[in-house]
Write a structure and sequence with these properties.
Length: 254
């Protein structure tokens, strides 16, 4: 990934979190999410402490809190699903503001909202402090299958290409007086989607042939060797270890 393919989620800054090797941050976020998921839902206070831990990381990384909150809007569909659970779940019922809600549904909604929000927030912080190219190098360092890393790399690299192709097709349709107004126009949109698939497939074949002609044999060359010292691993482990302490305390109290 070249520098020109920096993703919009990344926020450049000079902070201890930005300076950590990518595989350290990926492992830390993964372990943190596992600990959050393993926390009993009845330990409401534990999730508050997890949020404080993420807030501390946000402050150290010099990421504006408002930016993180705005990017949390991506979980709105899951929030809508969670809000329906108290109404559709079975079991013991309780009246809240004149509404008959399921107790198990309320706990389930809380479980999804709390753990889902914390997981998304951790992912947002990871994306905000790590460039895409560095993320891919970190996944390789963590021994993720090379084929999956290559697929992710190509998807990221050529996502903008496909998006630009869609934009040109839209402009071409509008220049011919087409405007989608209802179900009658779905046929034109379906044909456009088919044409986009064919163009993308043909471009993918051309790219593959160009790579093979330049010596590609199923593996991408490693340009940068990403390493991490013990001190960097120790700094990255602060978040999951602190979360683990909270989780174990939650299980003991529960």
């Amino acid at each position: 990934m070249g520098a020109g393919h920096a993703h919009k989620l990344y926020r450049h800054a000079s902070s201890p979190v930005h300076g950590l090797p990518p595989h350290c941050k990926i492992a830390a976020v993964f372990c943190f999410v596992l600990v959050v998921v393993a926390t009993p839902r009845e330990a409401v206070w534990a999730f508050g402490l997890y949020a404080l831990l993420l807030a501390a990381v946000t402050a150290v990384a010099r990421i504006p809190a408002g930016l993180v909150l705005r990017r949390l809007l991506i979980e709105v569909p899951f929030v809508a699903f969670a809000l329906l659970m108290p109404f559709v779940a079975r079991g013991e019922r309780v009246d809240v503001l004149g509404l008959s809600l399921s107790v198990e549904g309320l706990w389930g909604a809380w479980n999804i909202l709390a753990k889902g929000t914390l997981g998304v927030a951790a992912s947002v912080l990871l994306a905000s402090t790590t460039e895409l190219r560095a993320l891919l190098l970190g996944l390789e360092r963590l021994r993720m299958p090379s084929l999956l890393v290559q697929i992710a790399s190509f998807m990221i690299r050529y996502g903008d290409v496909v998006t630009d192709e869609m934009r040109r097709m839209r402009i071409a349709r509008e220049s011919r007086g087409f405007t989608a107004r209802g179900t009658r126009d779905w046929g034109v949109l379906a044909k456009s989607a088919g044409a986009l698939f064919i163009r993308s497939y043909e471009r993918g074949e051309r790219v593959h042939l160009a790579m093979v002609s330049r010596g590609y044999a199923g593996a991408m060359p490693v340009i940068d060797e990403v390493t991490a010292s013990r001190a960097q691993w120790a700094r990255a482990a602060v978040l999951p270890l602190a979360a683990l302490a909270v989780c174990l305390t939650g299980w003991v109290i529960a």
